[in-house]
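Tutorial, part two.
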Amino acid sequence: MVEKMNLKSFGFIAVGFKAGLIMKGLFALSEILGGVAAFFLHPERAVALISMISERELTEDPTDLIMNYLVHFGHSYSVDTQRFLIFYLLAHGVIKMAAIVLLWYKVKWAYPVSAIVFFAFIVYQVYHFTVSHSFFLIYVTIVDVVMIVLTLLEYRRTYSRIISESA
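Running the prediction step on this input gives:
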């Protein structure tokens, strides 16, 4: 059965929850695809690709922040980095996608389990931020915090309504 999404029947929390699931689902899919791409992106290929992309841009603007970051990434991209990216992106993407699918179909036990999984990701992301200082991790962490709150609110809203209807 396909659910009709409208603000009146779902309420603000439910709409925010569904929107968050869609956003996190797209991000999880990009992680899975990134993990697959990393499998084929050997360090030699990465350096060649980055050189091809950045050469013209850096001759026009040698201070280009993004291109310089990309070149730095290419020089530090090793087989160990490749293996880490493959493992991390695939594991993170698949686990997150599984949680999202279970939440989408309102599997009761998935709500608290997903909140715990998202919290574990937050712990790792905060740790990784202290090492990498990647502001993207701050953004992802904020999204995860919002998703935990929405997941728990949706759990309470959905299952308190079912309990009150059966009483």
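The chain has a mean pLDDT of 85. In part three we will examine how such features are distributed along the chain.
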